[in-house]
Amino acid sequence: MAVIHNTTMSPTKLELLTGWLPTRPWYRGGLSAELTKAGGFRLDDPDGEVGIEFMIVTDASTDAPDTYLLPLTYRGAPLDGMDDALIGTSEHGVLGTRWIYDGVHDPVLVACLAGLLRGETTAQAQSESDTPDPSVRVRVTDLATVAPVVHRVLPPPVPADVPGTVVASWQRPDGTRAEGVVASA
């Protein structure tokens, strides 16, 4: 079970992501991102070593804001061979230096997401320890081997009723709720 600490991070996750996101080939916004947190959820690393978060952010840098799913992993040490996936480091008020990675390249996140798609684990609330997130719905796949696909730009054109999909919700800039498939098998 991941423990959520009520503390500070410097720089913050949004500060790191504001610089990183416009460098991604799938980014559709302006020259510099204007990010707000819109939602998300967590998964637990069975070994308790890696923090796993699926953060949903909205970028208001253009007239038509875009929403992105940003899978992140937090580690207490650098991950060998993963320099290209490093978003940055941040000082956590309790845990010290955290190396923050683009989670789609982290084998722990990929394995945990595959477990979620097979129904072997439960999505957790983004800001509360040991609390399932009932707003995340999974249509479990019966495939023994799952290659998860993360949908970066939300909502993707994937129907929500297909087996092997994860549906999450987020808040739009106008305050209404939206939902869509954030990952699939």
How would you describe this structure to a colleague?
With 185 residues, the protein is mainly β. It has helices at 13-20, 107-117, and strands at 9-10, 35-43, 51-59, 66-75, 86-92, 96-102, 137-139, 149-150, 153-154, 165-171, 177-184. The longest helix is centred in the middle third of the chain and has 11 residues, at 107-117. It starts with 8 loop residues before the first strand and ends with a strand. The mean pLDDT is 90.
Radius of gyration from CA coordinates: 16 Å
> What overall form do the CA principal axes indicate?
globular
Uncertain spans: none
The structural class is mainly beta
Give the ordered list of helices and strands. Answer: EHEEEEEHEEEEE
- Percent of residues in β-strands: 35-45%
The major β-sheet equals: 7 strands, antiparallel
- Tell me roughly what share of residues is in helical segments: 10-25%
Number of strands: 11
Task: State mean pLDDT (0 to 100 scale).
Answer: 90
How many helices in DSSP terms?
A: 2
The separation of the N and C termini measures 24 Å
Any key phrases for this structure?
36% strand; globular
Summarize the structure.
The chain is mainly beta and 185 residues long. The protein has two helices and eleven strands.
What is the fold's blueprint, element by element?
Blueprint: E1 9-10, H1 13-20, E2 35-43, E3 51-59, E4 66-75, E5 86-92, E6 96-102, H2 107-117, E7 137-139, E8 149-150, E9 153-154, E10 165-171, E11 177-184
Antiparallel strand pairs: 1-5, 2-3, 3-4, 4-6, 4-9, 5-6, 7-10, 8-11, 10-11
